[in-house]
User: What shape does this take?
Amino acid sequence: MKKHLQFYATVILAVVLLDLIASFASRTFLFDYTKLFWASWCIYFIAGFVGCKRLGFIGGIISGLVAGFGDATLGWFLSMAVGPYLPNRPQQQYGIVIVGITIVIVSLLGVFFGLLGASLSKLLNRGLASR
Assistant: This one.
């Protein structure tokens, strides 16, 4: 169990670092922060892939969930604290319902990309095992 928690904490750290670096970079270089959504999806996918190798197939899917949840909670909070560059979109205060829906949707995206990553890991492992 300790191995799982350490891995999930590492996944959250990776997502939060991505959010912070991207927020600072978008503010510094004046590019639209929202255009980096694909980078988060890549982290979810990689979390699923590596999670499957280290923790098994279900562990990989959960790693994607953890990445999405961490991104939608701590990552979003810290990113908004930094104040990324959002052209034509002033920063707003969101109600609890919108925040809750966002957390659910981003967490489900994490599950989806985590599942894709875990599936690829499983397929590659099966292909290597048959040689």
The helical segments are 2-29, 37-55, 57-82, 96-129.
